[in-house]
Amino acid sequence: MSKPEFADIEKLSYEEARDQLIEVVRTLEQGNAPLEQSMKLWERGEALAAHCQKWLDGARTRLDEAGKAAASED
What span, in angstroms and rounded, lies between the C-alpha atoms of 25 and 8? Predict the structure, then answer.
């Protein structure tokens, strides 16, 4: 996601990124976009998916840490 045109994605919440990704997929599935626009949408979709995965990985880490902390208190 190092492309400057995707810098805005870093500021999105998981839900915002997910919603934008859904819209990108919808647009691509319609098949009406010219090739150049489709390629840009695909790249943005990849960046959005990576951002969503980062959020999910962070949530999983936090849950794992909370589980370990709870187990150590027992």
Answer: 19
Q: Cβ contacts of residue 71 below 8 Å, gap of 6+?
A: none
pLDDT category of residue 1 using cuts at 50, 70 and 90: very low
Helix axes of 14-30 and 35-73: crossing angle, nearest 10 degrees: 150
Contact 42, 28 (CB under 8 A): yes
Burial 22-50 (b: 16+ CB within 10 A, else e): eebeeeeeeeeeeeeeeeebeebbebbbe
6-52 confidence digits (pLDDT tens): 999 999 999 999 999 999 999 999 999 999 999 999 999 999 999 99
